[in-house]
Design brief:
Residues 29-72 are annotated as: Disordered. The protein is an alpha+beta fold. Helix content is 34%, strand content 23%. It folds into 2 domains: 64-145 and 336-498, Sandwich (Immunoglobulin-like), CATH 2.60.40; 149-333, Rossmann fold (3-Layer(aba) Sandwich). Strands 7-6-5-8-9-10 form a 6-stranded mixed sheet, sandwiched between helices. Strands 1-12-14-4-3 form a 5-stranded antiparallel sheet, with helices on one face.
Length: 499
């Protein structure tokens, strides 16, 4: 009788196994044998079994589109969103989710794309399957040729400087002065500069001045002092008028706005300001927006840059100033391609759906791609542009995966050109994430970080948790020895602790 307990238990287990086998439900031991083993280093949240039915990616992934629809967008090299988020996190606060743009986080990092041999674009496509095998991350990279300093055309710059009361905050106007001093020191004979300041109204501080009279320009910069309200519209209008009066056909003509973007006096209707900027951009006077300040009008500055055929950067440190106006001066100031657009078409027999990560403000219709009257993005020499796609593959996907095409106008003749490249499914890296391109992995972490900060990340559409993102960033920082990736890991920790 003492042995009846174990015997009964054994008989019960046999019966349960028999019932499970008949019903098709795997036992615990059987499930363990069938479960796929994820490669080393793959986070738990990414370990999925692709043997069962899954909901459509159109239901799972926010912003997903059918593979029948081409993805079309204007190119963008702005990085202001990442710069502002970095400052906020370093100060112990989370950035406003509305000021986080995924593509600007991705494009803030080095890509190492090969350059084209001519003045057009090199098109690169790579990607990797995620461990669930049905999802892939696709990277489309566009690269222009690095500038030859000896070939740089003269520049005619008009600085439009915000000297309103909000600029008196430490780290604003003093940083702007240093940026202007740095920029003036990098210019060469043949270049010319004008300076406009604005508060309640605009004032011309320096008429068009040859850079050979550098000391006069430095003295004018030192006279900039803050106070009063912010009439951004009058500042820009005066700056453009001055730029038009000193326009040079053989030069790069650019207005450089330095501001916190907080307009509160004069014509503050955005559409009116943006309309005026677009008019001047059509006359080959482009705009560079340099943002500063803890409180920052990010949305207005971004739209000004877009309408002004230019770019937006954010500076909060001396290192930011050095990179923008010393190391990357030619790239920052010159234009290699106007109205540049990208279109990515997917093969519906291999792809069920896709989601472009970011570029919401730059989206175009497929018909806009070859309509050269539709505004695109302005790209300088040595610029790279990256777009990431989360792609949901069909079972047994094979053959061509996608084709990426870039179209742009010559900055002088406005003659259109195109370049393209295709990629097949077999070219995707296997489901061993750590074997994918290191730069692709960094881009993926940066994109997921942005999605977290935007509050849009979920287990359905994202890839990693915050803890897993930190692990990924630490691993990549050790592999790349790239200070920007090390900084990314630090910012991830700050965001996790804050949120």
């Amino acid at each position: 009788m003492k042995k009846s307990g174990p015997i009964l238990a054994a008989l019960t287990m046999i019966a349960l196994l028999f019932v499970a086998a008949c019903s098709g439900v795997p036992s615990a031991s059987d499930a363990g044998a069938r479960a796929p083993v994820a490669p080393p280093g793959v986070p738990d949240s990414a370990r999925h079994d692709d043997t069962g039915d899954e909901p459509s990616a159109l239901d799972r992934d926010e912003g997903a589109h059918s593979a029948e629809e081409p993805s079309t967008f204007a190119l963008d090299v702005d990085t202001a969103s990442y710069g502002y988020a970095r400052r906020a996190l370093e100060e112990g606060r989370l950035p406003d989710p509305g000021q986080v743009r995924t593509e600007e986080f991705v494009n803030a990092f080095r890509q190492d794309y090969a350059e084209p041999e001519d003045d057009g674009f090199a098109v690169h496509i790579d990607g990797a399957r995620m461990p669930d095998r049905r999802t892939a991350l696709l990277r489309v990279g566009l690269q222009t040729r690095e500038p030859d300093p000896s070939e740089r055309r003269p520049v005619s710059l008009t600085f439009v400087v915000d000297v309103s009361g909000s600029m008196a905050e430490p780290g604003r106007l003093d940083l702007v002065r240093r940026a202007l001093h740095t920029l003036v020191d990098q210019l060469v004979p043949g270049d010319q500069v004008s300076i406009v300041s604005f508060r309640e109204e605009a004032q011309v501080i320096a008429e068009t001045t040859a850079v050979t009279r550098r000391s006069e320009l430095h003295e004018a910069i030192d006279r900039l002092n803050a106070g009063g309200s912010t009439n951004l519209a009058d500042g820009l209008e005066t700056g453009y008028r001055l730029a038009a009066g000193s326009f040079r056909q053989d030069a790069t003509n650019r207005v450089v706005l330095l501001s916190d973007g907080l307009a509160n006096t004069g014509d503050i209707a955005w559409q009116t300001i943006l309309g005026r900027v677009s008019e001047h951009a059509g006359k080959k006077i482009t705009l560079l927006c340099v943002g500063v300040g803890r409180e920052y009008g990010d949305e207005l500055m971004e739209q000004l840059a877009d309408r002004g055929d230019g770019a937006a950067v954010y500076v909060s440190t001396e290192d930011d100033v050095r990179k923008a106006f010393t190391e990357r001066l030619t790239t920052t100031l010159e234009v290699r391609a106007r109205d540049a657009k990208a279109q990515v078409t997917f093969n519906p027999s291999a792809v069920e759906s896709y989601a472009l990560l970011g570029y919401e403000n730059r989206a175009l219709t497929s018909e806009d791609f070859r309509d050269d009257s539709k505004d695109g993005g302005e790209i300088g020499p040595g610029h790279s542009v990256t777009a990431l796609y989360r792609v949901h593959l069909r079972p047994g996907a094979d053959g061509r995966l996608a084709t990426a095409t870039v179209r742009w106008l010559d900055p002088d003749t406005r003659r259109p050109s195109e370049a393209d490249r295709s990629v097949d499914v077999f070219a995707l890296a296997p489901a061993l994430w750590g074997s994918a391109s290191v730069r692709l992995q960094v881009d993926a972490v940066a994109a997921d970080f942005a999605e977290h900060l935007r509050g849009r990340w979920s287990g359905k559409s994202g890839t990693w948790s915050f803890g897993e993102l930190i692990d990924q960033a630490d691993r990549l920082a050790a592999r790349t020895d790239d200070p920007a990736v090390t900084e990314l890991a630090t910012l991830l920790r700050s965001a996790r602790d804050l949120g």
